[in-house]
Amino acid sequence: MAQDLPNGFTGFSQRRPNGFVSASAAMGTPRYVGAQPPANGPAGSRGAYEAATAAFSSGAEGAFQYARDHARPDGEPAQFDPDKLRLIPDIDRRWAWTEIDLNAIRHNTSAVKQRIDNGVRLMAVVKADGYGHGAVRCAKTALNSGADYLGVATVNEAIELREALVNAPILILSQPPETAIPLLLAYKVMPSVYTSEFAIQYAEAADAFGVRAPYHLAVNTGMNRIGVRHDEVVEFMGQVSFHRALDLVGTFTHFATADSAETLDFQIQVKRFIEAITALRTAGVNPGIVHAANSAAAIRYPDVQFDMVRLGIGMYGLHPSGVTRPMIDLRPVMSVHARITDVRTVPMSEGVSYGMNYRSPGSVKICTVPVGYADGLRRGLSGRTDVILKGQRCHQVGNICMDQCMFEVDLRVYGSRRRLDPLIGDEVLLVGREGDSVITLDDMANTLGTINYELAVGFALRMPRVYV
């Protein structure tokens, strides 16, 4: 074990990542080209030198695995191959990543399918890059698990799915700008429609290309965000339904309070929606696929399943509210991981991070991990969250920085608590479960006074994903 030095430096970790020989070997150039290693140098230096020079002379894989050409004249330096460099995984470029459990998506999708009636379709909502989980992989997994439709928020989100060879029906859950109409038609994506101007331009463009213009009618039943007012739907259809290219595929609304304990506003919206659908049918308009239930409503209210339910946050194993928690078993899909990049003993009373709001109490080690608020770990969690190291919770300390944060490992032993010995390269969990220790997005959301949706999306800002 390295001895603590007066300035708090505890020496370099003796642990090497798998396959690591030396920095010089990783760069593809021997550290001591043209010279012998220092006779009194550490054994590791001589071993690195011998490995690197052997690889240099033989052209073997290892030191030069990223070189453009192993065979070259003596003395000519290695040249990096950009194609090989691109093969280095993202998690080997930075020690922070999210893990996405596709089996959990399968479980959650199946759990909701079991709650809905036979014949009721299921739309997997993969907007916002699958709520931060990766739209393409989540969409394909959901479709393979029983989903029939996909829902997105933007034209580009739909195009991403199409270019990934996803062929299921895709609905944009809002009305895009008229300038995007050619993209809708080319990529066979359905918009939501609620203005006659858009509807007619959409139909005209489709007619010019000799194709249909499918859409879903959005109905405003009280959320007052988008949609044709519930008592004006017949009038609206009279303004647009004459066009031969328009094809009303579905009619939907969105509930504002399906996740709330109070149900009055929800019941008002249900009543208005049923009246709007009835009015359309009475006027001779087929509303197509009728859908209203989001995750909360699909779990709580069987009587609003209609022809399709929309599974959003629940698909990712996050409950829309505490009300649904005892009603269905959902498994979190995302966990957030990092490796320790620095370990140091900070003397008593010395501060840590910007503002030095935290002062070392002594008998602790301060560990750094490369995750910060630019990665979705909100600065408001500073000193108010934990990480999990080797199954044990450790308190995050100091202000969370843009790219890094620190946590404290108590070196004292008391009760049944075991002493941890953190090392550079050790893996920690910022969100997830290890043994009996668990940290959830709900925990963080409750601390911040926000919702789990916001945090899930935030962790997709720049950390690579690993699908398991």
UniProtKB/TrEMBL annotation:
GO BP terms: D-alanine biosynthetic process
Superkingdom field: Bacteria
Domain Alanine racemase C-terminal: 333-468
Binding of substrate, residues: R225, M402
Catalytic activity: L-alanine = D-alanine
The UniProt record lists the keyword Isomerase: yes
Modified positions (N6-(pyridoxal phosphate)lysine) in chain numbering: K127
Keyword Isomerase: yes
GO molecular function: alanine racemase activity; pyridoxal phosphate binding
Chain intervals for the UniProt region annotation (Disordered): 1-23
The family this protein is said to belong to: Belongs to the alanine racemase family.
Annotated protein name in UniProt: Alanine racemase
